[in-house]
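Long-time lurker. I teach an intro course on protein structure, and each term I like to show students one example going from raw sequence to a predicted 3D structure in token notation. This year I'd like something fresh instead of my usual example. Would anyone be willing to generate the tokens for the chain below so I can use it in lecture? Attribution to the forum is fine with me.
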Amino acid sequence: MVNLIGTYECKVDAKGRLMVPSALKKQLSPLLQDGFVLKRSVFQPCLELYPMEEWNKLMQKVNGLNRFKKKNNDFIRRFTAGVKTVEVDANGRLLIPKDLVGFAEIDKEIVLSSAINIIEIWDKDKYENALDAAADDFADLAEDVMGNDESDGIS
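-- Reply from a regular --
Happy to contribute to a lecture. Here you go:
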């Protein structure tokens, strides 16, 4: 199971390439040879970078949907829209395709943020705005999401 840790600021060049920070590259090293899938986020104006193993697990779930239901087909079409396979090159760079740069409105400074088994790729300003917007109600959100579990607490 992939368990990525950290938030990293870096720059993207005019061609949409970013240099994967060394600490993140080290975590990803066992996954580099299999490649990654890059897609639009469902809920936020950012991109999601899936290690191929994690993408394949997700696709098993999606493939189990009944395609004779219109909303399932609509979901699959929208969920996979713009999906691209990508690789980290020999120089440690990752190319973000132009259409995905446009979707996430990535300018020059970006944030790579771990989200357990995937990496979110954000325009830096949008990332900071999203964090600020969620700051006020994070305690309530944490209680709603994690508070109903009767096992030992995590904090």
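Some talking points for your students: The chain is about 35% helix and 25% strand. The chain has a mean pLDDT of 91.
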